Amino acid sequence: MATPDFRARFVAMASTWWIVFAGALAHAVSTGLAYFGLGVYFPSFEREFGWSRTAISGAFSMARVESGLLGPAEGYMTRRLGPKRVMYLGIVICALGFVGMSMVTSLPMLYVTIVAGIVLGTSIGFYIPISVVVATLFRARRSLAFGIFRMGPGLSGGMVPVVAFMIVWWGWRTAAVASAVIIVAMGWPLARAIGNAYERGVGLPDTNVPRPGTPAPDPEVSLTLKEALRTRSFWLLSAVMGLRQMVTEGISVHLVVLLVDRGWGQDLAGTLLGVSALIGSPARLAFGWMGDFMDKRRLMIGLLGVLSASVLTMATTASSTWFMAALVVYSLCYGGLASLQEPIRADYFGIRHFASIQGFSRLFVTAGSVMGPISAGFFYDLTHSYTVPLTIFAGSAFTSTVLMFWTTPPAKPGPGK
């Protein structure tokens, strides 16, 4: 017969793991509509308004600037108000942004609705609150927990074709309104479930301990934001993340229009973007699982090196077969890297001030997020080809591989610290 202690631990474990799966679903909804899904609108904006690709890319880049600048504030809000309230606020802002985008008639209006509405709402409503919750409640199996959470963007690939077909069938303005409805209808109950489960689970005994017979984990560092900023690890890790973001942001924004240039229909190109996200899902889970018992730094070095090679292949090949093969490899690397970035940051700097460190670090990865889409648009307008920007992205991924060799963790706390 189960003892009361066993039952209490089982309930605690169920509460914490439920947050991870609910967080993955919430992340899937938001990413499918407000990240990958936004790229599907790109050809419609170009066709209807005649704007250059550099100008349209600027909206996505400015959104990344906003996300980076407000990162510290979002971390502070999450710590003070709690995840549930912050998620509610973000969902409302995101939905209003989609409604505003459906009424766009000028380029400045597009910038405002994407930057101050859709992307701001997504960041507040989904990314930071849930990542803080996962980092706080998990330790021994933190990488696996983040791997499951980070499967959300991969699973969001199933929603990207929905966005593409809504645009083709109903027009992009109606598709934007429909996206606002979906965000509220699916996001609101998920925010409530995650918030309630967190409030119940955060005070329960730690259920994420190693299995019997396995050694206890080493003492964690617990750096304040000020202490983290004094370490070389913070700056190098931020540079690595920024360069990686440059690659993945640029390709995510431009992949649909790149495929349209190659002769694909907008709906099929959007479907392939969704398939790319889905392909990365197994890698998100697998590398999240491996990160709990393998060196995360070495895993990232390997993934970044292969990412560089796959993007270089996409840049230089004229063969559709080789391009698609490289895209599959790229998608797997993208997924694996996404599942490791929060766990390695939590391992390096601890979880006590994770929200502040996570938010502040976004100030320094924003540069890559901005340069990716806008540089791809600029060099396309200049050369009428994506060869140059993809080659630059391959070089960025290679540089991040080299930097990751030097990104060793801060010193572990000594006895009595």
Structure characterization notes:
- The protein has helices spanning 4-34, 36-40, 42-49, 53-69, 71-81, 83-101, 107-137, 142-149, 151-155, 160-170, 172-201, 225-229, 232-261, 266-290, 296-316, 320-349, 354-383, 387-406.
- By secondary structure, it is mainly α.
- It has one domain (11-207, 224-406): Growth Hormone, Chain: A, CATH 1.20.1250.
- Helix 6 (83-101) packs antiparallel against helix 7 (107-137) and helix 13 packs antiparallel against helix 16 (320-349).
- 57% of the residues are buried.
Q: According to CATH, what is the topology?
A: Growth Hormone, Chain: A
Number of extended strands: 0
With helices defined by DSSP (H or I, 4 residues minimum), what is the helix count? 18
Helix content: over 70%
Mean pLDDT across all residues, rounded?
81
Quaternary status: single chain
The CATH class turns out to be Mainly Alpha
If classified by CATH, what would the architecture be?
Up-down Bundle
Work out the radius of gyration.
Answer: 21 Å
Keywords:
417 residues; mainly alpha; Growth Hormone, Chain: A
Task: Summarize this structure briefly.
The chain has helices at residues 4-34, 36-40, 42-49, 53-69, 71-81, 83-101, 107-137, 142-149, 151-155, 160-170, 172-201, 225-229, 232-261, 266-290, 296-316, 320-349, 354-383, 387-406. With 417 residues, the protein is mainly α.
Topology summary:
Layout: H1 4-34, H2 36-40, H3 42-49, H4 53-69, H5 71-81, H6 83-101, H7 107-137, H8 142-149, H9 151-155, H10 160-170, H11 172-201, H12 225-229, H13 232-261, H14 266-290, H15 296-316, H16 320-349, H17 354-383, H18 387-406
